[in-house]
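Support request, please re-run this one:
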Amino acid sequence: MSIAKKIGLGLVVLVLIALVAGWWITRPQQGKLPWASLVGTDPVLADPNPQFFPTVGIAQPVGWKANQAPTPAAGLAVSRFAEGLNHPRTMLTLPNGDVLVSLTGGPPVKAPGKHSWVEGKVQHFLFKRAGSGVKSSNQVVLLRDADGDGRAETRAVLGGQFVSPSGLAWANDVLFVANHDSVWAWPYKLGDTAFSGEPTKIMDLAPGPNHWMRNLLLSPDSSKLYVAVGSASNIGERGMKAEEGRALIWEYDLKTRSQRVFGAGLRNANGMAWSPWSGEMWTVVNERDMLGSDLVPDYLTNVPLGVQYGWPWLYWKSNIDERVEAPMPQFLMEYTRRPEYSLGPHVAPLGLVFAQGGSRLGARFQQGAFIAQHGSWNRQPKSGYDVVFVSFDPRGNPQGKPVPVLTGFLTGDGTTRGRPTWLTWASDGALLVSDDTAGIIWRVIDPKASPAPAIERVHGRPLPPQKNLRGLQASFDEDYARE
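Re-run finished. Output below.
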């Protein structure tokens, strides 16, 4: 055999080896643990399996046919409240029953910090294939069901200039709208179908495009505005300077016009809501990727003032992510809080509402929280793509396993008909679910259910102050050593 033939044969062998190695490296890592063990108040945490190439499990949207609908839990009925919308995401029900919807997508801006051209192109391809890479309509639309038949017959664009709007909140004739990079206050009276005044900028925000949704929640007395801002990266790989003002929840005082960090270490907090039992803020959080299909749990948790949840250095309180290059702050593990409830890895929770008085989903769904799980593109088998209910005990603590409320979004052949995104209560007690890739707002109700009673607020006597601190140090040392 000639030297040329030997070299050619050697090159062919090297190419084959490279192809086999590439296939092996990039093939999806299958989840191995039973799903029930990964969710709840005490989930099993798999051993981390760091990936150079992410597991890709995209469910390409194919839409719903005219006679199709998601599958509701037994006893519930589902119908179309509105359809033909261009990528509806967040929703807000106003006191008069009108429903506001943001028609939105990610902003066309450059990611901050270190990044590569190839990374951006690959990410854009994956998001587009999953139905998320749409051009944003940049609109806030009003939907009105004036005749009470469960379908919005009135649709009006409020007007205004927006850039990837998401968060919506209203009080005292003011509508707050969060763009990807700022929060604005628009004069708006109930019943109007268009803006009639000029907006005022409330605050600037760290911009997109990564985790670009900026969700809003007003305090019960409407004196403060809370703004959730996601991270610019998976685990801070763009540099921690790029994460300034991110992975946190801001508190903005509308009277003093001052702001402070309310909660931090939250990789991508989305829906926020006030607990009807305690009055405390709760949120759902999208955790990190590329540690395997069974890690890391996305979660539902409370947000006490000043809380730290550990991102990017820690997950689930005390688990160190060895991939993070930035030095971990001193004593971070000691004051990082453990999340309250695991929703499972890569379910991508977005919308969150608590059960409330007047809701009409039946007795099974009167004590807990509803969560819209958008579904992730990087798990095998796929997880999320549904709406679930998490039961709470009478004292306001989550319990048990998530209960499916709305399923059937996944087709079973690797595609999806839609992706549940946001939740709000209609004025008649029905649960409204936005389906962004399908352009539909679904309405879920138990036709036989009476309006639910209001959840009773838990009141308790505060603990008395310690009069004698003797012995506390010894007790602390013993507990710390034991842990």
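The mean pLDDT is 90. The radius of gyration is 24 Å.
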